[in-house]
Structure formats: structure tokens, C-alpha cells
Amino acid sequence: MLLKLGVALFIIGFCLVEARGWQKDGKQRRKHKFGNMTDDQVKGFKNSLRKTNVDRFVAALDRLADKNGTDIEPSANEKAAMKERIKHLRKHVRSPKIHEDGDDMTEVNEKAGVAESLYQGDMALDDSQVDAILGEFVDGPADARKKRQAFYNSRYPRNLWGNTFYYYFDPSLTDEAKAISQVAIAFWQNSTCVNFEENSTAPNRVRFFKGQGCYSYVGMIGGEQDLSLGSGCQYFRQAAHEIAHALGFFHEQSRYDRDTAITVNTENVKPESVGNYRETETRNNNYNMPYDYGSIMQYADTSFTANGGKTMISKVPVYQDNMGSQSVSFYDISMMNEHYQCKQKCTSGATCVNGGFRNSRNCNTCICPSGYGGATCSDRAPGCGATLTATSATQTLNITIGVRTSVDYPTFETCNYLIKAPASNKVEVVLRAIAGNVQCRAGCIYKGIEVKATNDHRYTGIRYCCSDDVGTTIVSEGNIVPVIAFNRYHQSNYTVTYRSVPSSTASTILAIQLPMSKPTL
Ligand SMILES: [Zn+2]
Q1: Which residues are connected by disulfide bridges in this protein (predicted)?
Q2: Which of 55, 373, 393, 512 could make a disulfide contact with 381, Cβ separation 3.0–4.6 Å?
Q3: 297 alpha carbon to ligand 1 midpoint, in Å?
């Protein structure tokens, strides 16, 4: 009897210790839950993070989640301004999903059960990054700032791959995920000076494998590091995004200057996920490029939603639907070229115009903003499309793009138009019809039409893909407007009208309104 009582007391005592967890600051801590993963899946997940003390990492994530985001709660004024902007957003009726398993990384990872075990839902951090980024949740706030500085000043540059990114495909990877990885790898290789080489024995290498969800380490960690493209990740956005993490990129919505670009609508965010909207603690270098809502590193505007409502509200409302883009933006490409010092490789060569820069793979050619092409970016992008002259008379442009099949092509087919008004005028574009197989989805991930309305044609233009976008009028800042129709599923039909209007007409958006603040490193 006494023995039984002793055993029972021991068990109760053990349970109390377990439930209490780590309570360094006296607060109750929950024990980390790995979503609904099976024991084997947890084992696989932990193994994929073998460069990290996983228990320490997830304990820090739990402490971050426990903070409940009170520190990122918008001020009363911010909230009031946000509510006003929300009132004026179009009330899209979203199209049903084409793939049940695939959507933004956050949704895929929430379903897979890993979202809460990764930084901001899809990033693995090694121990030194845990110290640098989550330091205050591991060690307390005292020396966190010092560590953040160290992260930028010494760790950050060493976390690059140099000339070659070595990788190999684990047999666990599905054929689809392997094929899309190859497309994304070719994209990053052709757009930068980084060479990608398949090699399973290189000292530093990435193993592409099928884990739970989509995630990657940030930058080169050293040795073998894992990049997971699990079920729901076999799409270009996911592959290109995770490779960008492996190359060293963080998220657009965690840029230190993101408060100039978005307001986090904390009311709609799952309480345990609010911490994911903290800015990256490092003073990340954005190379003086504006916040681009069309960045491949920008999450969709319902990421970590508790109720289906929007979790990020753009401060520039016309760009609300750009969040969650399926294509790598020109500024993403330009920033990666800065990050790997590719631009410095061309000391002479082509004179690039319209915002293009010399292609480090052939300095006599340029990498051009979308809509532009030719050796120096002075031409319209080749293929489907036309250069059009706007006059004061209204003209109609009908665009048909895509094939009539339900094949979900990995990358977009595009039709590029350049609408030119006389030098001192502006261009007015009116969306008259969006028809065919309409896919009204966050980020216009299957199809849409983009209007580059500011004078900065490097910047992702305003994207439309919903029926209630019809009737929208856009007035450009300058006299040239690239209009790009893009499609990768079924067919799309767009009708727009355009005409030249006097320069006194108010522009929809000006380049100086694009959010950006200079880094204070
Ligand atoms: Zn990510």
C-alpha cells in the first residue's frame, strides 16, 4: 500500500514538473507541441534540424508565442487608420482552391503541424541564429542587443554561399517537388551569379527532401542542411521562396521598416502566431530598395489567420492583392544580386535602361524589369503583346492568354504591352472585363493582369485577378505604362481601355509613395 502511494506521488510529482516546464521568469510555460505530427514525424523533423538544438529552439519559439504580441499591437491611431483602409478594400469573393494541399507556406505548414516549431512558420535557425534572433527568449534581454549586432556585423556575410550553392535531391522527394525545385534553381541561377551544382558530398550542401511542410535554414549553415518540400510545397512559389531562405533572405513582412508598409491586423491573427509578425530583430540590410508587396518573400495577406480575415493590411491599398506573389519580383532579383555582389562583376558592358542592371553572366546584356527586354531593356519584352500609342481617344485592348486545359503550369505565360502617351501626358487604364476562368486568389497566384503605374518600373505593378476589380481606373505617374497579363492555368480574357490624359490628372500612385526607409545599421 505504502509502495503504491509512493509510486503514485512520484508520478504526480513528475507530471507537475512536466506541466510546469521551464519557468525562468516565474511564468507558467507550456510544453512544446509539434502540431498533430506522429512520433515518427517529430523524429524526422528533429533530424532535419540536426544543426540546431531543437528543444532550445522550440522553447524560445514558445516563449515568443507566449508574449502574445502585445508589443506589436498597433497603436489606437494606427488601428483607426487601418480600419479606414479596410473599409475601402474591394470585397473579393475568393475562388475555390485548385489544390487542397497547396496554398501559402503558412497554411501548408499549419496543416503539416510544423508551423509552430519554425521561426515565422517556415524558417529553421541554427544555434547562433537562435541566439541572435531569439536571444531575448533564450537568455533574457540583457545581452540580446549585443548579439543582434554581432549577427549582422560578423555572422551575416559569412552566411553566404560564395560562388556555388551545392545541393542534392534526397530519394524521399516526390518527382513533382524535384521537378519544381529544378525550375526554381534554374531561375535563381540564371538571375544571379550564384552557380547551383548538384553534389551530395560537397562540404557545405543543401539536401532537398520530403519533410512535413515547406521550410529551410536561412543562409549557409555549414555542413549538410535540410530544405523540406513536403506535401503542398511542390509549387514554384514554395520552392523559389525556400531556396531564397537558403540563400540568406528573410521575409519581406519582417523587414525592420515594414511598419511603413503594412499594419498587422492582430485581431485576426491566431493568438499563438502573433509572435510570427515580430520584425526580424536584426537590422536587416535591404540595399535601399523599397518594400515590395510583390516580393516572393512576402506572405499572403491571410497568413496565420484565426478567422479567414486579413492579417496584414497594406498602407498603400492598391497593392493589397500583391501579397503572396507566385513570381520572384525584379527587386528580389536585384537584391539577391546585391547580396552576392554579382553586380560588381561587370565593370563595363551594356548601358541598361528602364531600371535594368548588367547581367553578371554576360555583361553585354541586362537583367530587365518585367515588361522590358532586349539587350539593354529598351524594348518591350519579347513575345505576346504590343507597343501601343495612347491618344485622347479611348481605345480598347482585348487580351487572350493561356491554353484551355486544367494543367497547372509551374511558371507564367505572359503578354507584355507598353502603352505610351505623348511625353507630357499620363495614361489612363480602365479594367473593363476579366473573364475566362477567373481565379480570384490572394497574390493572384494563377493568373491576373498587372499595371505598372508608377515611374519606377522596377517595382511590381498593381495586380488584379478578381471579378470585382472590373471598373477600376488607374492613372499613371508618367507617360509610359507596362501592362502585363500573366497566366498559368486554363485561359484568361481581359479587356482594358486606355487613353492619354493631361498631366494635371491625379495619379493613382506615385513612386515616392512606395514604402522604404533607410537602414540604420
Ligand atoms: Zn519563408
Answers
A1: 342-352, 368-377
A2: 373
A3: 6
Measure CA of the first residue to CA of the last residue in the chain; give whole Å.
Answer: 67
CA 242 / ligand 1 centre spacing (Å): 6
Contact 216, 227 (CB under 8 A): yes
The residues near 14 (Cβ < 8 Å, ≥ 6 apart) are none
Q: What is d(CA 266, CA 70) in angstroms, rounded to the nearest whole number?
A: 9
Query: What predicted TM-score, i.e. pTM, was given to this entire model?
Result: 0.91
Query: Residue 298 C-alpha to ligand 1 middle, in angstroms?
Result: 8
Give the single-character DSSP code of 269. Answer: B
In 3D, which of 70, 49, 65, 59 has the Cα closest to residue 23?
Answer: 59
- What residue has cell string 531600371? 355
Q: Is residue 493 classed exposed, middle or buried when 0-12, 13-18 and 19+ CB atoms within 10 A define those classes?
A: middle
Contact 135, 127 (CB under 8 A): no
Q: Which residues are catalytic?
A: 242
Give the cell for residue 40.
515518427
Note residues around ion ligand 1 (Cβ under 5 angstroms). Answer: 122
Strands (DSSP E) contained in 40-155 are 123-124
